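lol ok so funny story. i was supposed to be doing the assay writeup but got distracted and ended up predicting the structure for this chain instead. priorities right. anyway since i did it might as well share w the group, maybe its usefull for someone
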Amino acid sequence: MAKKSSRKPSKPLTYADTGVDIEAGDAVVGLIKHHMRRTYGPRVLGRHGAFAGCFRLDYNEKLFQRNYKDPVLVACTDGVGTKVQLAAQLGILDTIGQDCVAMNVNDLIVQGAEPLFFLDYVGIHKVVPEETAQIVKGVADGCALAGCALLGGETAEMADTYKPGDFDLAGFTVGVVELKKVIAGAERVEQGDIVLGLASSGVHSNGYSLVRAIVKQAKLKLDKVYPELDPKMTLGEVLLAPTRIYVRPVIEVLHKYKVKKPVSGMAHITGGGLPGNLNRALPDDLDAKLDRKAWAVPPVFRFLQEKGGVADAEMLKVFNMGVGYTLIVRPHFADAIEQQLRRLGEEVFRLGEIVKGSGRVRL
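and the output, tada:
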């Protein structure tokens, strides 16, 4: 009979041996505390580091209470996609969090909802507390711009899932809107309505698999300044410009009209471009007829198209091409809403109008 082996492992196996550092995770919690707390308002309850965040739907003081009569909660979730690979490659980690917030809250306001709170998820190869804190700082910056609280989040250290230096970033947001103010579907869009567009801040957070392919194929240098693109920024800095957050101007315009409903539809222009997003706000018997001369395409898109030899139709299908958000408004209110949005700091384009058709976007 074979003898039982009496050998023992040379040292006990630990969680850290598998690539998970609990102490580093705890350090991150301490480093991000002040970033989270600066997004808190009077409706956030409890202490930092709890198992879940608490948020009061209303607040019992006249200065803060919303007085909801028939509140509808609205929620959505999204990530940043492969833009995180550029951020990791360049070591610029403090803006990618704003992209994550923007991709969520810009979707949320399409329904007319005000964002209340946000939670993030970071999946990472190895937690380096200072670097992870930079990612969360960007999330907090985005929440501050959107006027919502960063209630909590999760950092998952998974050395056997992510390669060294890699990470992923996603999140979700919850908002609220009065039932009678919900902008749902395309039921209110009418022939003759005007389409207004709000300028984007660049590529935003869609199409980066194609962007990275162009950079590689054309042998572009991310640390180089291309004067035709921007004389003061490297290509990498231009491509990492954070996604614009449209919450405050859009919500302010919506709240200005207590009874009338001059905004009949909206769309966040993400992957799919204008043709693949604005069409989601159209009924089956109407088209959006847009004039491509109504706005100037930013240099970054012309640069990418030229360097990659990308066809016009493909560019319009993949990228926002300079228009990050659209509002469909009643003709009588178009001038006033356009002026309000300009006063709130937005660059506004009158893109076109709603005409008879079959539910598509005509460029």
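The mean pLDDT is 92. DSSP finds eleven helices and twelve strands in the chain.
back to the writeup now i swear
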